[in-house]
């Protein structure tokens, strides 16, 4: 197989999971702008997700968020997804929108509140069983706003106990993916603020616990690709929440703010073997002012382009430059790959896979947007619960 053929083959195996909440009304903490034709329930979210997969060919799974996507019959929801040509992906928990969680969830000083939070996480594992999902994704808003508000070490003990109880409930082939975030909504301490804290808890829990890197959850200037390389080296990178940020957790379209950073991250993924392992490439975005399905298609394409460039890095030339201490040449090898226009290559890959070479144009001409605006009248539009 030629080098180019190998790159094409790798690109055809790529899978990017899309988030159910991005198809509904979601956006900033300031205002969520409603759009016509937005899904009214999880079944219609899957219908929209199926369109993204139809035109990109690389978005076969859809992440759910509980309780936003709660239904009476999860087996029926999974069957609906399969009928539409997609599958249920990660199950995302929500322990941050209930009044009881004002002082935390699994880290709350009240044992009754902690039990409630853990009960919800166990419910999410039940949903995994019913839908065939393999991943439980956990993000906690737990933290404190003031010095002395609570015992920092005790909160870590409570977190460890809660995670351990849920970990023991996981079945064969199921994972716990622990996400971290620098700040928000807690501003003095956050109970899972960084990759080191998440890694420490996952290491103690065992092989089924891995870390999720959300690209918007870091301090400005953080070298995310270093974190990715380290977690891959330790076998603890479970997946990504891909988005883009200018200031904090902006949840903008991946690659919108810093496409070079996305390339650097994907290079470390390719370099560390993450592209051919169980690392989950998930989007976590909110499309507030842009049309939702086109924005998700564009996001998937951005990930594809960064991946294609990463796959084109001349590994032998880079290793030789690094070994000889040729700093400029080593950087040039990376930049040559990044500066390559990979859009013609991706058009070829799509055509060879029986897809339209221009996913966005194909979607816009298919009539789906007009169809859902006409048909989705009445009921309540889906939103992220804000």
In summary, what is this structure?
With 386 residues, this protein is α/β, with parallel strands linked by helices.
Evaluate the radius of gyration. 21 Å
Mean pLDDT metric:
96
**Molecular shape:** globular
Q: How much of the polypeptide forms β-strand, as a percent range? A: 5-15%
Largest sheet: 8 strands, parallel, barrel
Estimate percent helicity: 40-55%
Describe what you observe in this structure.
Strands 1-2-3-4-6-8-9-10 form an 8-stranded parallel β-barrel, surrounded by 6 helices. It has a two-stranded antiparallel sheet with strand order 5-7. It is globular. Helix 4 packs parallel to helix 5 and helix 10 runs antiparallel to helix 11. 45% of the residues lie in helices and 11% in strands. By secondary structure, the chain is of the alpha/beta class.
List the helices and strands and how they pair.
Elements: H1 3-12, E1 16-19, H2 42-56, E2 61-65, H3 74-83, E3 87-92, H4 111-131, E4 135-138, E5 143-144, H5 152-169, E6 175-179, E7 189-190, H6 195-205, E8 209-214, H7 224-233, E9 237-242, H8 259-271, E10 280-283, H9 292-311, H10 315-324, H11 327-338, H12 343-352, H13 359-364, H14 368-375
Parallel strand pairs: 1-2, 1-10, 2-3, 3-4, 4-6, 6-8, 8-9, 9-10
Antiparallel strand pairs: 5-7
Helix pairs in contact: 1-9, 1-12, 2-9, 4-5, 7-8, 8-9, 10-11
Keywords, separated by commas or semicolons:
single chain, 386 residues, alpha/beta, 8-stranded parallel beta barrel, two-stranded antiparallel ribbon, 14 helices, 10 strands, 45% helix, 11% strand
């Amino acid at each position: 197989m030629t080098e180019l053929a190998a790159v094409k083959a790798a690109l055809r195996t790529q899978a990017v999971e899309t988030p159910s909440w991005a198809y509904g009304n979601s956006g900033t903490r300031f205002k969520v702008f409603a759009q016509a034709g937005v899904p009214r329930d999880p079944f219609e979210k899957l219908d929209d997700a199926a369109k993204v997969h139809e035109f990109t060919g690389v978005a076969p799974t859809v992440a759910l968020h509980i309780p936003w996507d709660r239904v009476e019959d999860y087996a029926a929801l999974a069957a609906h997804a399969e009928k539409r040509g997609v599958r249920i992906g990660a199950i995302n928990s929500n322990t941050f929108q209930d009044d009881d969680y004002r002082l935390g969830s699994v880290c709350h000083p009240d044992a009754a509140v902690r039990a409630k939070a853990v009960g919800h996480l166990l419910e999410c594992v039940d949903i995994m069983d019913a839908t065939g999902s393999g991943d439980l994704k956990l993000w906690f808003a737990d933290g404190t706003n003031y010095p002395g508000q609570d015992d920092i070490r005790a909160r870590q003990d409570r977190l460890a106990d809660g995670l351990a109880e849920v970990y023991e409930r996981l079945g064969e082939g199921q994972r716990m993916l622990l996400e971290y975030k620098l700040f928000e909504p807690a501003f003095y301490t956050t109970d899972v603020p960084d990759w080191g804290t998440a890694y420490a808890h996952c290491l103690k829990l065992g092989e089924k616990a891995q870390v999720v890197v959300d690209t918007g959850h870091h301090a400005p200037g953080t070298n995310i690709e270093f974190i990715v390389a380290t977690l891959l080296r330790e076998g603890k990178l479970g997946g990504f929440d891909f988005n883009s940020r200018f200031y904090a957790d902006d949840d903008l379209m991946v690659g919108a703010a810093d496409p070079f950073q996305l390339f650097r991250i994907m290079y470390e993924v390719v370099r560390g073997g993450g592209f051919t392992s169980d690392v989950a490439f998930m989007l976590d975005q909110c499309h507030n002012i842009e049309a939702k399905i086109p924005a998700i298609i564009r996001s998937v394409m951005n990930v594809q382009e960064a991946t294609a460039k990463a796959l084109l890095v001349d590994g032998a030339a880079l290793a030789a430059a690094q070994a000889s201490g040729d700093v400029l040449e080593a950087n040039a090898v990376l930049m040559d790959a990044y500066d390559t226009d990979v859009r013609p290559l991706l058009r070829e890959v799509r055509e060879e896979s029986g897809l339209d070479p221009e996913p966005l144009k194909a979607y816009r001409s298919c009539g789906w947007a007009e169809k859902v605006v006409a048909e989705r009248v009445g009921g309540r539009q889906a939103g992220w619960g804000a």
